[in-house]
Amino acid sequence: MLDAKHFRDGIEETAIQLARRGFTLDTDTLKALEAQRKELQVRTESLQSERNARSKEIGKAIGRGEDATPLKAEVGALGDQLDTAKAELQKVQAQLQEIILGVPNLPADDVPEGEDEEHNVEVTRVGEPPVFSFEPKDHVAIGEALQNGLDFETARKITGARFVVMKGAVARLHRALTQFMLDLHTEQHGYLETYVPVIVNHASLQGTGQLPKFGEDLFHVDGESQDKVAMSLIPTAEVPLTNFVRDEIVDEAELPIKLTAHSACFRSEAGSHGRDTRGLIRQHQFDKVELVQLVKPEDSMAALEELTGHAEQVLQKLGLPYRKVLLCTGDMGFSAKKTYDLEVWLPAQNTYREISSCSNMGDFQARRMQARLRRKGVKKPELMHTLNGSGLAVGRTLVAILENYQQEDGSVVVPEALRPYMAGAERITA
RNA sequence: GGUGAGGUGGCCGAGAGGCUGAAGGCGCUCCCCUGCUAAGGGAGUAUAGAGUUUAUAGCUCUAUCGAGGGUUCGAAUCCCUCCCUCACCGCCA
């Protein structure tokens, strides 16, 4: 959510900035609503003020033993006016709120302009794609060839499309990856390990920006009655982790707060029928190790570089070739101010595929969440900045390992960094 | 799931229709006093929003005592619904 100021005096400038990321701000509607809001709010508050004062007088009159009946009637009429004004104000504010909650973040100045991923800018490329003396297979072929490996058939039977069952050494490799990532981030990068709910309430989802606009991307767990608060499965642990500080004011000395968690993530993938239907790339359920940083505003851009570097470390230690891409305005997520994607090399696809997305959200989420910090000697609290990134998507990392470390005989070499987590095993064999 | 008790400011805790944005205490900040320390005295100490404004300064106003609705001229206080916490019982990984 942007500062309300952006929709008042500087609205034209805001519209220009939003146009950079392909969002059209309806300035006419906003201006009209804003004018109504101002008028109604001023009127409502002054009516309120008057009624409060008059009601107190009634109390005093009664205290003096006077007859307050005529006064009561008068103030009662005032109350009716107030109710009308209040209702109108509420309507206008709800309309404004709905629009404002649907406006994406403003891109940072150094974000390249562009409509889609075509205009993303490659920043660095690390590692060499492996050269094979044979035709490399994709992870599905590799995983299914193993006696106990990837089993999409069983998953389809017990649940449906876009789910997987992993078995044996592949399941263990998957577990090893999460262990390795968590250890790296907690022991070397200074994150606090956490375990969090994968079902969250809607206040949390609004806080990080998934709601109200992107509800169809989520799986919902509805309450059995209308009054029950509905909840949803998290699409990323960013939601629970970032919401740690919702409605909190933290002392500046406590920042930065660096959190990591391993969790299952759930995405309905509405609208991606037919995309990446084969394999583990796009699943309804997948595991991810998430990195979240809550920082002082002036530190957030540096923190983005740092956090991205932490995710890169995972790829480097696993010996996976990747590139780092700066997303253009049109390809960024709703809440992001600046985003780097890390893309890992997938031999079978002969291309780099997203395995991590690291974003600085600025104060966008913090404003929705009322997540603030208090500086020493300053009375008024200030919005903090929030960042998050995958460190990494575990399923996709598994894909990358199977494909990049595959051998002609169908076995897969275990990267050295993972061997301690695999009882020393050097390779997975058929 | 059942029964009971509760949800008030950073914390503890009063208040039971008007004079309560909220007593008192603790904590914290500043000042005074005290040759260190301890003790003592004084002042201050929520958040959000609106208007005014060059201003994130001041001033004025509004809202907030778990959430939402209702009664009333007026609700922290009364009524309803929901959420949450605690205790005991049942069930359970």
TrEMBL record:
- What function does the entry list? Catalyzes the attachment of serine to tRNA(Ser). Is also able to aminoacylate tRNA(Sec) with serine, to form the misacylated tRNA L-seryl-tRNA(Sec), which will be further converted into selenocysteinyl-tRNA(Sec).
Question: Which regions form coiled coils?
Answer: 75-102
| Top-rank EC class of the record's enzyme | ligase
Cross-referenced HAMAP family, in alphabetical order?
Ser_tRNA_synth_type1
Q: Which GO terms describe its cellular component?
A: cytoplasm
Catalytic reactions on record: tRNA(Sec) + L-serine + ATP = L-seryl-tRNA(Sec) + AMP + diphosphate + H(+); tRNA(Ser) + L-serine + ATP = L-seryl-tRNA(Ser) + AMP + diphosphate + H(+)
Instruction: List the InterPro entries hit by this protein, alphabetically.
Output: aa-tRNA-synt_IIb, aa-tRNA-synth_II, aa-tRNA-synth_II/BPL/LPL, Ser-tRNA-ligase_type_1, Ser-tRNA-synth_1_N, SerRS_1_N_sf, SerRS_core, tRNA-bd_arm
Pathway listed for it is: Aminoacyl-tRNA biosynthesis; selenocysteinyl-tRNA(Sec) biosynthesis; L-seryl-tRNA(Sec) from L-serine and tRNA(Sec): step 1/1
Q: Which UniProt keywords apply?
A: Aminoacyl-tRNA synthetase, ATP-binding, Coiled coil, Cytoplasm, Ligase, Nucleotide-binding, Protein biosynthesis
| Residues that hold L-serine according to the record | 236-238, 267, 290, 388, 390
Enumerate the Gene Ontology biological process terms: selenocysteine biosynthetic process; seryl-tRNA aminoacylation
Per UniProt, residues of the Aminoacyl-transfer RNA synthetases class-II family profile domain are 172-415
Q: What is its EC number?
A: 6.1.1.11
Q: What is this protein called?
A: Serine--tRNA ligase
- Quaternary state and partners of this protein? Homodimer. The tRNA molecule binds across the dimer.
Q: Where in the cell is it found?
A: Cytoplasm
Molecular function terms in GO for this entry? ATP binding; serine-tRNA ligase activity
Instruction: Show the domain comment.
Output: Consists of two distinct domains, a catalytic core and a N-terminal extension that is involved in tRNA binding.
Write out the residues that bind ATP. Answer: 267-269, 354-357
Principal location: cytoplasm
Q: Does the keyword Ligase apply?
A: yes
